[in-house]
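quick one before i forget lol
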Amino acid sequence: MQKISNHLYLFHDTCNVYVLCSGPEAVLVDFGSGDVLDHLADIGLERVTDVLMTHHHRDQGQGLSRAVEAGIRIWVPHAEQDLFHSVEAHWQAREVYNNYNVRQDRFSLLESIPVTGTLGDYEVRQFGDHVMTVLPTPGHTTGSISLLVEVDGQRVLFSGDLIAGPGKVISLAATQWTYNGAEGVAASVASLLDLQDRQLDLLLPSHGDPITDPKAAISLLVERFWELLQRRRQNPRLFQMRERPYQPVLPAGEGPGTPHLLMHRASMANSYVLLSESGKALFIDFGYDFVTGIAAGSDRGARRPWLYTLPALKAQFDVQKIDVVLPTHYHDDHVAGCNLLHRVEGTQVWAAESFADILENPDRYDLPCLWYDPIPVDRRLPLGQPIAWEEYTLTLHPLPGHTRYAVAVEFEVDGLRVLATGDQYQGDEGLIWNYVYQNRYTVGDYAAGAALYQRICPDLILSGHWQPLQVTPEYLQRIAADAEALDHLHRELLPEAPNLGAEGFIARITPYQVTAEAGQTIPFEVEIHNPFPGPEEAVLRVVAPQGWEIEQGIQTLKIDGIHQLTLNVTPPPGLTVRRARLAVDLTIAGQRFGQQAEALVTVLPRGAQ
């Protein structure tokens, strides 16, 4: 054991394991092989209570099974939790052949380990005598964290593998989040600059010696990283975006401008900020703040929201409170940061009644781009009714097209009528359709949207990924004509009968994903769409794994339009399985449509939930 200060020690292992002492007990930062447990008595310790992991790599925690056996609580970064407690599923799903995903998520644990809980970004927790602040520091991995604590009169940061020494990192390969990318390098720069502002006395890396001059060490590493990015011609506006991430949607030179309506320049999907005279802010959409690049894969460990730009927003625009966040639709790039805003800033989540349940219960839905965690909604907003926020009036209108579950947000600000429309169209000209069939697109959606645009006649349209659009009468006429052409093409291309709709399926099972205990009866709702113009006889057969009990597994029904029914399924006692499949097999009007919908069931041992 190497003594750093009276209550802080370093154990050299597959990584640096730091030992924070509280009397005869200790908390460990990272765990390595677990050999540290054999040396506690060397410094007068009796037991370890908790292990705090900075990231998921195997050198940090390959011995965590020893911690489990010893009854030690294990805490892991929230964004990387699946790479600890569900790494078996990760290994089974991870592509190997024709693999262009070079993220180092294969440097993960070989077996899953149970975790006590997650370390949420910006969270403050007490472990023993020590109060820890969790800081998001993506770079070495997307989900890496650093831990800030005051120990023996010093501000100490456990930095994981973000830095290994003055101007040094332990791995450049780890910063390559995509094939030939440098996303992790840019993220490292952003993380390091954030730490530079925190007046640290001591940096403790996972590899390398303790760093007693953090400012100089960070500055040298940022300098070298920045040269690498410049020579690679990547992220050229990194420092500009960090210094001024928000700007008025219309600068003052374009008429009076929009001093009360800002655009976030550095997010993945556009976020917009409505400013009140009272110093409050309302976000329209808030997904991935300050993106330096999107990592390969779409698992939880590849997606990292944070609140990096909020200090600049508050300082530069005199914002006193992030009061409300209002998403235009449920997709992750528009809502990923909502839970952080709620927990850290006390921000209320307001959502349209048409998709609030998707935010709160994502596992019920078979839809693309769902966020991994439920997002509690503080206020469900009705459609078509004016809603007051501060001095503004907002109205939410249904806007199907990109997804059935989207709204356009209408309001007036700085003398302009504005419509925030999410991802309805692509391109800066706002003309390229952005429909996705699995988002529940229906023929007629764009015609309905074009009619809404013409009725509201906004001065300005705010889109989800492109530049704000100043609206002209010619634009409104063009999108109406284009919508008519889109509908005409779909009607020409798809059969009239049976009409399977644009999605191509006539049944749906809810919930789509469910976790239950063995022997527990699970209710499902089945929605059937009659593909014929008049009432017809339908025969429904439930398909389930052998040995599962099904109530009314075969039903004969008379259906007209949309028909809904409930069925109950019970997995057998003693079963444990991940994502067992159910389906409904349909015959309507004598025509066999087959297994039209599925649901996924994870079965746990009794008492495990």
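fyi DSSP finds 13 helices and 36 strands in the chain.
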